[in-house]
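SECTION: protein entry
WANTED: fold as tokens:
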Amino acid sequence: MASIEEFVKERSPLTDIHIHRLRELIADWQLLSDLSFADLILWVPLRKDFKSWPTGYVAVAHIRPTTAATLFPLDVIGDEITHGQRKYIDQALASAEIVRDTEPEPMGEFSVKEETIPVLVDGLVVAVISRHRNAELMRQPSRLELNYREIAHNLYRMITEGSFPYPDAGSLFDPAPRVGDGLIRLDVNGVVSYASPNAQSAFSRLGWVKEVEGIELGTLAQSLAQHSADAQEESIAGALTGKSLKRVEVENAGGTISFTVLPLIQGENRIGAIVLLNNVTEIRRRERELVTKDVTIREIHHRVKNNLQTVSALLRLQARRINDPNASAALNEAVRRIASIALVHETLSNTPDASVGFDQVLDSLVTHALELSPRMNELRIERTGTFGSLDPRIATPLALVITELIHNALEHGLAEEGSVLGIHVDSGNSDIQVIISDDGVGLPEGFNIAESPNLGLQIVRTLTENELSGTLSLVSDHVQTKAILVFPNTK
């Protein structure tokens, strides 16, 4: 769908500031539509500058109410009208005032009442909202409908005064509270003057079965909070006075209710507030479950790491007691492989999310491998590129593969003097490529990795193909021997 800029490019004097303000309005105007029981369309005048009469208007946004049936089954975004075609839109633009008390007009099978609201930014009318309601549904409004409409009129007036949408609302409307979940109207003293049936139900869940009208909201909410009076509850009471834009939660054994406070302003004066309620009991329960599961999973990784270290220590002790050098070497290789897996679990036990910062693991793998090398002081490490975060399902076999390749390079690829071990990582494409190089004696003539009897290379090839879904090749020239590992980037 086209953006506001695309609709008005070179056809309107709107600046980036104006367009940003219109985006803020569109982000919050489901509230306006629901309170009005009306479809809302945002029209931008098409003109050279703000002093010129427009040649017409283009519809840049459209919202349907969730509290009533829409009058527009098809979107009107992108539709254009000429100046003079819709008199109420022209009137709102010219007067910079809300146009109300208009006569209903037929629209298909409906009788529709259209009202228009100018959108002002720094004293300039940058757009016009047309509000469309079914006139037949307005003849005998309920108390709920009357309160909703009065609140809507206050908010539309705030649009013309530039105080709605609320500046710096930030994440207050994420997720956006809905009128239908529960609405409370406060007077200037923070006393409830009206509570919708769903708002009353929300209080019933918290254990308050009496009427809430005529009661100071902050005091009532504080009395229902789970703990005894403390700083937290005092902040709840202060936030629900209606004096400022706030979002707080009240929790007790009955559930958790979110309160979003929206002050109503007229000129320089506060005339009251509305409070939107949302039952977030299930959301908070699931969040607590996720936190508990996350802690449990990290504890499991920590225990697996400890168990692997215990197994590694036992194998190391056994290796020291064996006189056969071949058997001792095999056990030491097993210790090295177990240590590689333990490093991944150690990283996961210290990570708040389900991913592995593999560059940290690689640092540990290299350090551990060098500590086991008898010529570590003669080695120079050259590393380029980074992995970033990887899925644990990839990290564990990758750690084993890299451990084997580094160990193979250290064991068979050392030059007589000043050896260089190169580790190059390229993770910027659809595949991740890892190259481990050495400047040693090179590969034997006719070498084929698939036919190599080396257990470490067999392990590497199996893990690469089966666990990483990748490929491994070893190439050698008169300068370097390279192990080239390529596998899909699943980030």
About this structure: The chain has a mean pLDDT of 86. DSSP finds 13 helices and 18 strands in the chain. The two ends are 28 Å apart (CA to CA).
